[in-house]
Amino acid sequence: MAGTFTNNAGAVFVVASNGMPNEMANVGTLVNNGDVEVDAGTLNLTNQPNGVTDVRAGTSIVLFGTLTAGSKNGLFDLGSIEGALTLANGQKTVVTPSSGTLKNTGVFNLEDGTSVVVNGNLTNSGQVRPLGTSETLTVTSTFTNQADGVLNFSNLPASNSSLT
To answer: Can you give the three-state secondary structure of 59-121, one letter per residue?
Structure first.
């Protein structure tokens, strides 16, 4: 689909729900007001050069598969999370917010050996939760956990997850 795909509030858009790793959905521009889940395949944003820059309040994105913006990682310019973002694809995702700061007021989950590098600052007044046993969150500048922020590494007693 070369144009805009609008996923309305209450709607769910699933890519590769049957575990088909070669499935790909090409969407020009994604407007997400609901829930997006990429189970095994790839969601490619062909006309959204900055990828997903905001996970809005009341929305969610769950990635067991891959999100791309053309040839780039689809979250490379992510600037804010007010909804819920779960990265559970075991991949390394590098985020370089154009503002210099990734702001989380929602829920940011890392699972299944996923590694995230934030090139810049991370300000958290929501929840950052490495939920598995080997997740890595690297912040190259400053991580600020606000008074109401939760950074939770305690979900598994044998966790090797790390913050660097």
So the answer is: CEEEECCEEEECCEECCCCCCEECCEEEECCCCEEEECCCCCEEEECCEEEECCCCEEEECCE
Pair of tokens at residue 61: 């994105």
- How many Cβ atoms from other residues are within 10 Å of residue 118's Cβ? 21
Whether the predicted pLDDT of 126 surpasses 90: yes
CB atoms within 10 A of CB 10: 9
Dihedral-angle region of residue 46 (phi above 0 means left; psi in -120 to 50 means alpha; beta otherwise): alpha
* Phi, psi values for residue 113, rounded to 5°: 75, 20
Instruction: Please give the C-alpha separations between residue 147 and each of 132, 144, 162, in angstroms, as whole numbers.
Output: 25, 9, 21
Q: Cα separation of 141 and 153, whole Å?
A: 20
Rounded CA separation 99/91 (Å): 24
**Domain extents for the chain?**
4-154
Q: Are strands 127-130 and 107-110 parallel, antiparallel or unpaired?
A: parallel
Say if CB 132 and CB 112 are below 8 A apart: yes
Residue 159 clears pLDDT 60, i.e. is over it: no
pLDDT tens digits for 39-64?
988 999 999 999 999 999 999 999 99
